[in-house]
Design a protein that fits this description.
Layout (H helix, E strand, L loop, with lengths): L1 E6 L5 E6 L19 E4 L4 E2 L5 E4 L2 H15 L4 E2 L5 E4 L10 E6 L2 E6 L2 H14 L4 E2 L2 E5 L5 E7 L7 H13 L4 E5 L1 E2 L2 E2 L8 H4 L16 H13 L3 E8 L4 H6 L28 H17 L4 E5 L8 H17 L3 E5 L12 E4 L5 H10 L3 E4 L2 H4 L21 H5 L15 E8 L7 H8 L2 H10 L7 H8 L2 H8 L13
Helix pairs in contact: 1-2, 3-5, 7-8
The chain binds ligand TNX.
Protein name: beta-N-acetylhexosaminidase
Family: Belongs to the glycosyl hydrolase 20 family.
Keywords: Glycosidase, Hydrolase, Signal
Amino acid sequence: MRVVWRRLSLGLVMLVTSCGSGTPAQPEQLALVPYPASVTRLEQGFTIESGDTVTSAEPAVAAQLVAGISADTGLELTTGPTGRIRLDLDAPQAGAEGYELTVGPGGAHISAATAEGLFRGAQTFRQLARERAVPGVRVSDRPRYAWRGAMLDVARHFRPVADVKRFVDLMAAYKLNVLHLHLTDDQGWRIAVPGWPNLTTVGASTEVGGGPGGFYTAADYREIVRYAQERFVRVVPEVDVPGHTNAALAAHPELTCDGVAPEPYTGIKVGFSALCPGKPETARFLNDVLKELAALTPGHHLHIGGDEVEKLSPREYAQIVELATQAVTANGKEVVGWQEAGATVLPPNSLIQYWQTNGGPEDVKRAVAQGAKVIMSPASRVYLDMKYDDSTRIGQTWAGTTEIDDAYDWDPATLIEGIGDDRIEGVEMALWTETVVTMNDVELLAFPRLPAIAEVAWTPQSQRSFDAFATRLAPLATVWDRWEVDYHRSPRIAWP
Ligand code: TNX
């Protein structure tokens, strides 16, 4: 039996099955990733040309569409009042991020309720315009999940602001909307905090393998936030406590129980460090750090970590996590924590991030029983630091190897029994950087899994199949070459 995509005369795209040895399956889906909720092919489109004009009620979105098309095709478009590519805020029913896109012989029209919706629609149009001949189409689209994230670990290996911006560009092209910055870990502290000067002079000066490290000043961090905001990506900063804190302890030994600074750490073990429970300095530290992050971050969420603590009793662990979550609430923000934090008392509206099967479902269920919603980050699917196969030149394998179909072919709603879409806030991939030294390394691990997971988070489950995705993914390699993005040439994709 073969699965074929057929277009009915109604204009609806429907999945039908055919048996036997008829004509081979036609790839009738347009090469869009993530695939929209609804796509109807129309007879005639138009050919985009240099000098074409984008007209929009949201000039910033128009300017970015012009820049995006230029990056993809080399065409030079302009913005102005009478273009044949029009973006209008005239679809109040489209929701926060939804949009309608129509392409006909006279040009293209994107309708949305918000600037964000126009921006998402503009990414779809960019992909349609890749070959200049834009096909006739009517798209009606909105995301499955509100939270479509990527975590970047800038603690194990630091990434300068310019690299983070490039990562944001790559995320935004696939309609991701949350950049989770893992700012602190045993090997480095990456954000300046007033009153705790050694966090940057000492804590930031290390990274895995002994490199120079680095950190973001408040101005650097604000620049990342601004750049991301312009692309409708919100930044969620993580300060990982009470474990993963060797860099902070080495910088400020008053945070240890015996007052002695541990050696700086540049290896890749986890679980060995912890803040000192019960010490007033611990509470002062958490308050100061989270107050600063709250002041720097316009988004609603602060991530307090909470993972992999081996050095504290459950009671000590809960005591410190609860100091952190109370500091988040006191500064007007909402909590995100790794699954382990589900064992503590969580404030209202918290988010719990599932990452591994070992104990994870129980911790997540404890959090959900307290009203939390879930971010799905199963390590065996979405940990971008896992190798694709044994030959991948960097990466880890503790959660297995993760080829493109492993990253793509799962349903968040069937991962944990009893946790369906009504309790799931979204999906987030994680790029831990123990083995990731350069931006090329980042790209190699992220592509093509980042677009695959973006589709898991955006596209209705009923519209997804790996075979159709593989066909749509292959031609994107041409664009990645233009962007000079390194990617894994997975043997499961028929690349051009
Ligand atoms: C687990 S996932 C970690 C990280 C490591 C990662 C490496 C999680 C919450 N903790 O500390 O970097 O594995 O794959």
